Amino acid sequence: MHVVTGxxxxxxxxTAVALLAAGVRVRVVVRDPARGEPWAVRGAEVAxxxxxxxxxxxxxxxxxxxxxxxxxxxxxxxDPLAHAEEVATSVAGAxxxxxxxxxxxxxxxxxxxxxxxxxxxxxxxxxEALRGTGAVVTAxxxxxxxxxxxxxxxxxxxxxxxxxxxxSADDARPQVATRDVGAIAARALLARPERSxxxxxxxPVVSERExxxxxxRVIGRPVEPVVVPEAx
Length: 232
Fold this sequence. Notes:
The protein has helices at about 10-20, 35-40, 55-60, 80-100, 120-130, 155-160, 180-190, 210-220, and strands spanning about 1-5, 25-30, 45-50, 65-70, 100-110, 135-140, 145, 160-165, 170-175, 195-200, 205, 225.
């Protein structure tokens, strides 16, 4: 049986779908019981727990052959890094308490660095905390998600602008679809490695200008990539 946290999100949801399609038992962890109901209909077990609540998370992880975990960013938190630290401590502690033998963690490029990476520091701390549990850890260091465009789709439709938050509009970088990340996470859970490893998860290399061109064709109006000043 495999446990999937974050099943109501893009990557966690894709991971759970891939595992169910493989015919294995799946337990999803949700904070809101109502959001677990669609998963129960699909045939998954449902556990209710907050990722910051080690005591509630422990029974959700008990009996797992493997678990998919993540640390969702909370940009509304007064101290986002403190929030990430709280999640890392709780998730790792619960995994150790439950004796989970294999943990697949959604991480990010740059998570090997202890400083200088902004919110990615929280994922570095998650990786480090999990490695202290005794479990085999597969850290999926993903690149930018293609679906992040959905967060600024309204701006593109209304203003014809694609905000660019780093670099220039012509800088090319790998971008991956979350459904592919979920498929890789499921594959990792189903084929546990002998030792802990970090896996770079990359997609096609494209620029923000290319993304803007695709958006323009889809929404039927010109879209211009605009670099947002760092202070903004």
